[in-house]
Amino acid sequence: MEFLDYFLNVFTFGNILILILGTIGGLLMGAAPGLSPTMAVALLIPFTFKMSPDQGLIMLGAVYTATVAGGAISAILLKIPGAPANIATVMDGYPMAKSGKSKEALHYCFISSFVGGVVGIIILIFFTPVLANFALKFGPSHMFWIAIFGVTVIATLDSNSIIKGLFSGAIGLWLATIGYDSVLGVERFVFNPIFSGGINIIAALVGLFAIPQVLSMIENKQSKSDQFLMEKKSLVQSIIFNLSRIKALVVGSVTGVIIGLIPGAGGQIAGLVSYDQIKKLSKKKENFGKGEPDGIIAAESANNAMVGPSLVPLLTLGVPGSPTAAVLLGGLLIHGMFPGPYLFTIYAETTWTFINSLLIAQFMMLAFGLYISGLAKYVIKTPSNYMAAAITILAIFGTYSVQHNFADVIVMLFLGVSMFFLSKFGFTAAPIVLGLILGPIAETNFSQAKIIADTQNGIFSYLTTGPLNLVIISLCIVSIIYGIITEVKKNKK
Amino acid sequence: MIKINNLASVIIILLISIMLAYASFSGKQSEAYLFPKIITSVMIILSSLSLVHYFFETKKIAEINISKLSIYLISLILFIFFGEILGFYFLTIILFLTVCYFYSEHKSFKIIIYNILITSLFMLFIYFLFSILLKVQVPRFFLF
After folding, report:
1. Which chain B positions have a beta carbon within 8 Å of A413's beta carbon?
2. Radius of gyration of chain A (CA)
3. Going by C-beta distance under 8 Å and a sequence separation of 6 or more, which residues neighbour residue A130?
4. Centroid of chain to Cα A328
5. CA torsion angle A291 A305 A85 A112 (round to 10)
6. Alpha carbon distance A472, A140 (integer Å)
7. Which of B134, B135, B141 should one mutate to test binding to chain A, selecting the residue with the greatest count of A CBs within 10 A?
8. Contact between A146 and A472 (Cβ < 8 Å)
C-alpha cells in the first residue's frame, strides 16, 4: 500500500490547480479535431520543464486522461473523432446525437470513461510489477497479428460490405508504406517530394473524417431543426442506466487494460476491439451503428482503461504502451527520471504522486466532462453553413500545427475530398485510418519477424506457430467470418 | 447532379490495385517492398471479389450534387494554391465568409454583417488557440 503514503501529496493548492487546468485544457484540446492526446502531451512537455517534476508529471497525466475522453465530444457531436482512440465512439455516438440524445450520449461517454479510467489506474497501482512481465511476452509475430486483427475488426464493423471494409483497411496499410522503409531506409512510392516523410496520421484522420462530413453537410444542407431534435434525460437517469450496463463496462474495461499493457497497441485498438466484443455478446446486435448506448459505453471505458496500463511497461521497463505514453517518456526524461526500478525507489515520492494524481484526474474529468455535456446543445444547434466553415478552418490549422508542414494540409484536403466520393460507393473512413495507424506496427514487426524467422524455419512457420499467435489468428478469422455472416443475414432481410 | 454506377467504382478500385501492385512489384530493392507486395496482392484479390460480387448484388447508382459542392471545392483548391503565398489567416477569413454566405438559407445585408461578426470572433479564437497558446507559426501575409 505504498501509494497511500504519498496520496495526500496530490492535494496541495498548486497541484489541484494544475489538475483542474490540465483537465479542462485536455477536454478542449481533445474535442478539437486534429489535436490528439499524443500531440497535446507533446505540446505541453516544454511548459513542464520549468515546473517541479511532481507538477510537470501531474499536468501531463491530467492532459493525457482528459484528451482521451475529450476526443469523444467531437466524435459524438460532429462525427469527427478528436483522436484515433475515439473512432469506435463515432459509430453509435453520432447516431445517438442525431436522434436527439447528444447530452445522454456524452453522459455515457464521460461516466464510462471514468469507470474505465479508474479500473485502469487501480491496475496500474496494484499490479505494475506482475503485468510488466506479461507485456514482455509479446514478440514481433504477436504484434503483427494484433495489428492485422485491429484492421479486420474495423473492416467488419464499420462497413456495409466486408469486401469494401477490408479493401479500405488494405488501402490504409498501403498508404502507411509511403516514405522511408523503417528497417532498410529505402524510399518507397514517393511520387512527389511532399510524400517523402510519409502520410501524417493526424492529417489523414482529420481529412478522412472532417472533410467528407463538411461536404455532406453542404450537399444535404439539413436545417438545424430536422437535424437534431433534443430529448431530455436527467444526469441521474443517465448514471443509473450507465451503471446498469455492467456487461459493456466490464468488456470495455478488461479489453482496455489488456490492450493497454501491450506495448505500442494504443487506445484505438482498445476501443474497437471492445466495441466488437460487446456487439458480439449483445442480444440487440442490429441496434449497433444506429445509436446503441452499449457501443459508446464499451468503447469509451476501453480507451480510458487503457491509459493506466499503458504506463505499466513505460514505468517499469521504459517500453511505452501507447504513442502518448511514448511522448510521456520524454516528460519523465527531462526531469532526469529514467524508467525502471529506480522510479519506485529513489523517485518513489514523485512516481506515486503522479500515479495518484491520475486517479484524481479521473474524478475531475468526470465532473468537467458532465458539465460540458450540458453545453452540447449550443454546438449542435449551430447552422450547418457556420459549422462547415468552422470545421474546415479547425481542420486546416489543426493539421498544420502537427508538423508545421503545408504538405500535410494538402494531403488532408485531398484525402478528405477523395473519401467523400468513396463514401458514395459504400467505403468508410475508419478502416483506412486504422490501416494507416497500424501499418507501421504491422510492417516493422513483420520485418523483425522475418529477420528472426530467416534463422529458423521460415516466416510462415514463425508467424503461425505458438499458442498466442494461434489465438490472435483465430480472432482474425472469427472476425471475418462473423462479418460475412452478418452481411449475408442483412442482405436476406 | 452526377450519377455514377457502382460498376465504375469497382473498376476504378481494381485499376488502382493493379497500379499499386505494379509499383510494388517493380521496386528495385525487393526486401523493402515485401510488405507492400503482400498488401497489394490482397487488394487485387479483394477488388476482384468486389467485381464478382457486383453481378450478384442489387445495382446501385451514386448521386453527387456537384453544383452545390462546387463553391466549397473551388475554395479548397484556391487555398491549396495560395495558402502559403497569401497566408492562412487572410485566406481562411475569405473561406469562412464565402462558405457562410453561399450556403446560407437567407441572403441579406443583415446576414452579411452577422457573418462578418461571427467570422471575426471565430478567427480571434483560432488566433488565440494556435498562435498565442500553442505558438504555431502559420504562413502569413502582410499583417496576418
Report:
1. 76, 79-80
2. 21
3. none
4. 16
5. 30
6. 13
7. B134
8. yes
Chain A from 33 to 52: CB within 8 A of any B CB: 43
Cell triple for A382? 449551430
- What is the C-alpha to C-alpha distance for residues A192 and A146, in angstroms, rounded to an integer? 32
Residue ranges of A 158-217 with Cβ closer than 8 A to chain B: 161, 163-164, 166-167, 170-171, 173-174, 177, 181, 183-184, 186, 188-189, 214-215
Model confidence over A241-282: pLDDT tens digits?
888 888 999 999 999 888 887 765 666 678 888 988 888 888
B61 forms bridges with which residues in the sheet?
A: B5
Rounded to the nearest 10 degrees, the angle between the axes of helix A102-135 and helix A87-98 is 170
The separation between CA A433 and the C-alpha centre of its own chain, rounded to angstroms, equals 11
Instruction: Give the side-chain half-sphere CA count within 13 A for A135.
Output: 30
CB A43 within 8 A of CB A1: no
Task: Enumerate residues 6+ apart whose C-beta is below 8 A from B65.
Answer: A219, B1
ipTM > 0.85 (yes/no):
yes
8 Å CB contact between A151 and A162: no
Quick one: how many helices (H) and strands (E) in chain B?
5, 2
Instruction: Identify the pLDDT of residue A225.
Output: 42
* Cβ atoms of A267 and A300 closer than 8 Å: no
Q: Which residues on B lie below 8 Å from A186 (Cβ)?
A: 29, 32
Residue A62: name the closest of A123, A121, A104, A111 by CA. A121
Give the whole-angstrom CA distance, residue A101 versus residue A228: 9
What gap in Å lies between CA A325 and CA A254, rounded to an integer? 19
Selected for mutation to probe chain B from A44, A151, A174 (highest B CB count within 10 Å) is: A174
User: Model confidence at B116, in pLDDT bands (50, 70, 90)?
Assistant: very high
Confidence bin at A114 (pLDDT 50/70/90): very high
Cα-flanking dihedrals φ and ψ of residue B143, to 5°? -80, -30
Write phi, then psi, for B96 (nearest 5 degrees): -60, -50
* Nearest C-alpha neighbor of A308 from the set A354, A365, A247: A354
Q: What does the CA dihedral A122, A123, A129, A133 come to, rounded to 10 degrees? A: -170
Over residues A375-399, the mean pLDDT reads: 81
- Residue A52 CB neighbour total at 10 angstroms: 13
Which residue, among A311, A302, A336, A280, has the nearest Cα to A127 in the 3D structure?
A: A311
Contact status, residue A146 vs residue A394, Cβ threshold 8 Å:
no
Give contacts of B43 with chain A, Cβ < 8 Å.
Answer: 167, 170-171, 174
Q: Per the CB < 8 Å rule, is A404 touching B136?
A: yes
pLDDT recorded at residue A341:
67
Cell of B17: 490495385
Cα distance between residue B93 and residue A309, in whole Å: 44
Instruction: Return the C-alpha cell found at A140.
Output: 514481433
